Structures are given as C-alpha cells and as structure tokens.
C-alpha cells in the first residue's frame, strides 16, 4: 500500500465534504465516490453519516450496492460513521423493510437508537487502540450496537449517563464503524486510525 492511500468517500448523501477534509489532513488522497468506476480507483472507502434508508436506496440506484459488497468481501477497508455504521451492519433493527446494507460487520445495529434529532448529544468516549484522551463524541440520531459476533472487536462504549455501556465503536478486520461523528469535531484520531489501517493492508 502506498504511503498516501487513495480513500473514497461515498458521496450519495450525508456529510461527505467533512470526511474528505479530515482524510486529506491525515495525508490520504481523498475523493468522492458516486459510481462503480470511481469505486474501482480507490484503496478504501468511508461511508458517511446521513440517512441510512436514503443511502441504501441511492446505492442501489447508482449501481454501487453489489460492487461495494464485493470489494468488502475482497478485503477493502471501510469506515462507516453513524449511518455508515448502519450500512456496514449485517442486521439492522428499526429500519425500513426494504432497507439494504453492505453486510460487512457481523453485528446487530439499532437505527436511531439514541432518539430523534432533538435528542442529539455529546459524550466522552475512549477508543481502544487510539492514544490520548477520550473523544468528544457527537451523536446525531445515532445508532448503537446491540450484539456482535465473536469476530467483532468492541472499541468504544458510552461511559456515563442513561446510555452508559452502549457499544458505539467496533472493528472487524479491515472494517471500522462508529455511531458518532468524528468529522464534525476537528479531532482527527479516528480518521488517522483508519488511514493507518489502510496503509497496513
């Protein structure tokens, strides 16, 4: 893998620009991905926050659902934040009946588990394997992880408040997911963690 990997950001809906900016600061060549031929030209992919049912529909419309699944099966690193976590899950609770995902991480995720937009909140979250203080994590209509398989590593949980103990960061092989939005805080450690993961593959 090159020292400056090419990392795509799925640009169908959501906070694409913020992820591109954060990845570029971590010395990655970041670019939007909207079509299968653009997916073919990247080493890894970020699936941003947004609205998971909309992302699911647009991924089908733009012919990206199966190509992304195939790339994941082939070992492509992928990081999903918030809606991206939902898109990476093998099971989604409280989603639409026709909602599809990329079937990457063997976990059950509950959509909008932390509540509606007005219930958005911020909380400290420590991420295993990432040095430094706890992240100032921003949760916006966020999911949480209810169950994981034996092959999934739990990296972070809410440590205080009514949601204490809820799983909000996981990794399975080359796949990483958080239910919060590190791209909105200026803290680059999650993005740097992912870029380093991509370089190591």
From TrEMBL:
Q: Which InterPro entries match?
A: Class_I_gatase-like, PdxT/SNO, PdxT/SNO_CS
The protein's UniProt keywords, in alphabetical order, are: Glutamine amidotransferase, Hydrolase, Lyase, Pyridoxal phosphate
Pathway info:
Cofactor biosynthesis; pyridoxal 5'-phosphate biosynthesis
| Keyword Nucleus found | no
Q: Does the keyword Metal-binding apply?
A: no
Q: What is its EC number?
A: 4.3.3.6, 3.5.1.2
For binding L-glutamine, which residues are annotated in this chain's numbering? 50-52, 111, 140-141
Locate the coiled-coil region(s) and give their ranges. Answer: none
Which residues are catalytic? 82, 181, 183
Q: Which reaction does it catalyse?
A: L-glutamine + H2O = L-glutamate + NH4(+); aldehydo-D-ribose 5-phosphate + D-glyceraldehyde 3-phosphate + L-glutamine = pyridoxal 5'-phosphate + L-glutamate + phosphate + 3 H2O + H(+)
The free-text function statement in the UniProt record for this protein reads:
Catalyzes the hydrolysis of glutamine to glutamate and ammonia as part of the biosynthesis of pyridoxal 5'-phosphate. The resulting ammonia molecule is channeled to the active site of PdxS.
User: What quaternary arrangement does the UniProt entry report?
Assistant: In the presence of PdxS, forms a dodecamer of heterodimers. Only shows activity in the heterodimer.
- What family does the Swiss-Prot or TrEMBL record give for this protein? Belongs to the glutaminase PdxT/SNO family.
Tell me the protein's name.
Answer: Pyridoxal 5'-phosphate synthase subunit PdxT
Q: Which organism is it from?
A: Micromonospora echinofusca
């Amino acid at each position: 893998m090159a020292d400056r990997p090419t990392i795509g950001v799925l640009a169908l809906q959501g906070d694409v620009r913020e992820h591109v900016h954060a990845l570029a600061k971590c010395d990655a060549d970041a670019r939007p991905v909207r079509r299968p031929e653009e997916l073919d030209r990247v080493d890894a992919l970020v699936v941003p926050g947004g609205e998971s049912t909309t992302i699911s529909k647009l991924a089908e419309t733009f012919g990206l659902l199966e190509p992304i699944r195939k790339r994941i099966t082939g070992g492509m690193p992928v990081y999903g934040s918030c809606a991206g976590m939902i898109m990476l899950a093998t099971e989604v609770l409280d989603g639409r009946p026709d909602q599809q995902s990329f079937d990457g991480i063997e976990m059950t995720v509950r959509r909008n588990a932390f509540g509606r937009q007005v219930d958005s909140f911020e909380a400290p979250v420590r991420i295993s394997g990432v040095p430094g203080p706890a992240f100032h994590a921003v949760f916006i209509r966020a999911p949480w992880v209810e169950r994981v398989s034996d092959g999934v590593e739990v990296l972070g949980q809410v440590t205080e408040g009514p949601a204490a103990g809820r799983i909000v960061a996981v990794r399975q092989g080359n796949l990483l997911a958080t239910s919060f939005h590190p791209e909105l805080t200026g803290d680059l450690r999650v993005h740097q963690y992912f870029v380093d993961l991509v370089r190591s593959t």
